[in-house]
Amino acid sequence: MAARSQRPVNVGRLFHWAAERGRPTVMHLDRPFDIAPDSGTRFDVPALAATVEDAAGWLHGAGLRHGDRLAIVKENHYDFILLAAAAARLGALPVMIAPIRSEAHIRALLTRISPKVLVMGTTVLARMTAAQIALDDPGMTLVAVGEDRPGLPGGTLRIDDVRGGARPPVRFRGRHEPMLVTHTSGTTGVPKLVVHSPATTLAAVPFRIESYRLPLMTSRPEDVVASGISFAHNRNLSWTNGTLFRGPRKMVILSDPGLENVARMLAAHPPTSLEACPNVFQYWEELADTRPELFAGVRRFISTFDAVHPRTVRKFLGASRVRLPLWAWGVGQSEIAGIAAGVATRSMVRPGKPRAHDATNVGFPPLVRVKVVDPETGRKRPRGKPGLLMVRTKSRCLTYLGEDDRHRAKDQGRWWNTGDLGEYAGYGRIRLIDREVDMIPGMSSIELESTLLDRLDRASEVIVLGVPGQLPIPVLCMRDDALDPQEWDRACRGLPEMDKPRLVPWDEMPRTATWKVRRGELREQLLGSSDTYGTGQWT
């Protein structure tokens, strides 16, 4: 009995452990898994464990062995973590790569990985083929998953080609050995590959916090928890761990954030908990305006990966019909988990609240130590004085795969340089200001963008770019791709002087896999310049 109840720290044990506990949770998908296209869209926990077992078998059949590396590059879906669990059961190292925009960046990442087996989605594979980027690395087996497409490269295998062998042995790696690799968002270039062990993930408290019983925050047996994140990132691991431990009635997977798909799934499975990336919630504001009943039963909204704007929080909390809905937000990095976190209620995001005290921008370090230092001297900054955020935590990654020197440059003894700017806000809280590379002297682009979003109700995205020698340049996505000059003048009243706004359609805004705007690429796209005020030294 003790062995059954012991909390797993290796992702390869997670689904089998949950199946042994007999949790009644059922997962509902918005489309079939890419690795199990004929298995439908409804999975109980034993079926998830069986899918992991099956994947371990065909990965072994493709030649993956203990100590090898598996690269996973495919369309966004929850089965990223199933493949990672399967590889971990073999003692291999899974590297999860979201379907990022740049085929050249994908090729660069694969070169760093040198995988024994590459599992690639057919849509991504078609993009690579169209870009004439070869995937014929010596000694590498390529397995395509997803819908059939013509013109796959010669030598490409499908799952059925490598299935049917003997059941492979289970050989987990050690507690402090590499277990899983995810990548950073890549807002400033080729993403970094972040290496984690069991000790820095499932054994660390920040990854387990959601499995504890917390008033108003923890999933209950009757809950329906829905998630629409980038499933290739570490957040999927911590969310899965906490959700399987608490055992809600349903897990709802939103692999496609499109409005029609999300409306269909939320109508079929009304959630009590809903998570997405901040910019995805921003995109879904249109649903909050036109279909508020979809969010009527949500008592807990969750946003991670990036800062969230008050208008977004206000709209969704207003759409909920429960007595006290909460918005839980967290800002972190793939390398270290959380930096700051907070909870907002309706009253905390009421219109007119001063930005310096905003509930979506000022939070507490979540079980980690944070200090604010001068970027040049390294000395601690007093309250109210901006500086670099340094974090000390047991969930810090081991290294960057293929870039050890880059990792060492940010590793300062027991402290990790986040490259984010913030300040002490009193009572142990941290106020987020900007990424250092995106800074605008004398202001916070986070706060300026939040103010403009509040004043431009039809805006679905606002980005303010700082360019040396010029006024800050606002870039707007408007729902109807139009902006009245008088509307803009009213929005700018009382704000720092800015250049004329640029309009960019939502679909043309360069984004990462977590829907963050790639500000460097946007700057190049609009201005033909890469100049910034920040150094970018810690990106």
From TrEMBL:
SUPFAM superfamilies: Acetyl-CoA synthetase-like. Keywords: Ligase. Belongs to the ATP-dependent AMP-binding enzyme family. This is AMP-dependent synthetase/ligase domain-containing protein. InterPro entries: AMP-bd_C_sf, AMP-binding_CS, AMP-dep_synth/lig_dom, ANL_N_sf. GO terms for biological process: fatty acid metabolic process. Residues 38-400 form the AMP-dependent synthetase/ligase domain. PANTHER family: ACYL-COA SYNTHETASE (PTHR43201), MEDIUM-CHAIN ACYL-COA LIGASE ACSF2, MITOCHONDRIAL (PTHR43201:SF5). GO terms for molecular function: medium-chain fatty acid-CoA ligase activity. The keyword Transmembrane does not apply. It comes from the Bacteria. The keyword Ligase applies. Gene3D superfamilies: 3.30.300.30, N-terminal domain of ligase-like (3.40.50.12780). It comes from Streptomyces rapamycinicus (strain ATCC 29253 / DSM 41530 / NRRL 5491 / AYB-994).
